[in-house]
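The following block was generated as part of the benchmark described in Methods. Ligand: zinc ion.
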Amino acid sequence: MHLKTILNRVQNFKSFVYGPVRWVEDASEPTIEAQLRPRANGRAICSGCGRRRPGYDTLPVRRFEFIPMWGIKVFFVYAPRRVSCRRCGIRVERMPWAAGKHQLTETYAWFLAGWAKRLSWKEVAGAFRTTWDHVFSSVERAVAWGRAHQDLSGIEAIGVDEIAWQRGHHYLTLVYQIDADCRRLLWIGQERKAKTLLRFFRWLGKDRSSELRYICSDMWKPYLKVIAKKAGHAIHILDRFHIMANLSKAIDQVRAEEARQLKREGYEPVLTNSRWLLLKRPENLTAKQEPRLAELLRYNLKTVRSYLLKEEFQLFWSYKSPYWAGQFLDRWCTRTMRSQIEPMKKMARQLRRHRPLLLNWFRAKGQFSSGIVEGFNNKAKLTTRKSYGFRTYHAAETALYHALGALPAPKTAHEFF
Ligand SMILES: [Zn+2]
């Protein structure tokens, strides 16, 4: 079987035919080149307007990289024609295998982008002996196409979340769609300011914003403000994942402070290495950790009391009726305010202030488990943390949309991946 026959099977172009296929003798890596030429008498299509136009001249040959075969690099070799278009002037013809000035064929770019969902970009580059930049630009093209072709109708529930990136003090705001039948990353913005979320609502548009019915978020003030302003009609829910994460942060603060204090006063370091004992759910502790937690709980430490308050707060989520949940919340806040533990008191004050939004959790009961936003949050962190070599916001944004956006791809993209 000729290679040409195979190429005609896997990648056939209506107005172009394959010429000779040859092994490139002097290449640094095993390489095959397949000549392409226009079908006889076929007029070129203007890349500007998409119409057949009379030819003008022919440019020097260009090489377009196709999917490698058996570890052998494959290139299409073609001399693009220019057309004289009465609308667009002198233009390069449209070539169905290529886009713009890209050196990779469309098919190869979709192929690399497909693998980049399963492996890190570096691994993809290594596996197919290409460069990180080629993988990145392939993903970039896939994301641009997917974002331009995605269906944004019927979005009723969204979750707003933030993640830290680039060591600490930089944040990204992420908005997910969390409807039961469609869960995906919708939008990313730099920072976590009111301005950031306003940009999301501008992107979503007035009509689609008015169709929102549920919005989950944490207690971050700029978000609360913007949500009230832009989607006041929707039920705004403070979700469980974010509340429990904040409680954990408060405990962490109490523990760090108290550990320092105990050390200063010369006590045995009971709190050393206790961080995970206190942050894990009891049922997730290992056999070794369990007795250590039991030992720790014998001390009447602020840390321990905070821990018990947090464990008790778990009960809040098991209520069915907003009324009784509200009663529980009030009692918990009163007791926490008497605890004389400042980070916990701060938490109680915050919860009190947002009582109605907290109770919305029960009004939307059954609709949104905390697992959805938490799951997305974990995946987003994993994506940015994996050493993809992100130096820029644009690269991180591209990776997140690619991994979590559930973006569509053209039908042809699925043939090779
Ligand atoms: Zn034209």
